[in-house]
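Continuing the series of single-chain predictions for the mutant panel. This is the parent chain; the variants come on the following pages.
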Amino acid sequence: MWTAALTALAIIATALGSGVLFGVALANVPGFLALPADAYVRTHQLFDRHYEPVMPLLVLSALAADVLVAIGPGGPAQRLEHLGAAALLAAVAVISARVSVPLLRGVRQADPGALPPDWPDPRPRWRTWNLVRTVLAVLALVITTIAAVTR
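Parent structure:
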């Protein structure tokens, strides 16, 4: 019974997290790129305030659930699938912590009304890494779902 509950948690948390990343890649990133720097900083500060507390919780919950299911009862194929999904989610977490958070720290701390002319705009690099995270999270969702369906 706990395996089914953890599998459901893994699917739901991965679906929500990958859905947010997909939505950001699909709508927010192009919108952010179209804005002048000061408007981008102001907008990103507003959006980030809502995304930041939720995304790590979703990714880490899904990762933990996949690991727990992988070490529980089940066949080798399901174990491998859940461990694969967990590895993809771990990569999402590492990219978030090592690349995205440091890149966006400057945006969080910036005063949109007083950006220097040589302000290091993180948007192009952040767009690339956000797309990588999105692909990894969607793949984790696909793998976890396949593992659940074939169990």
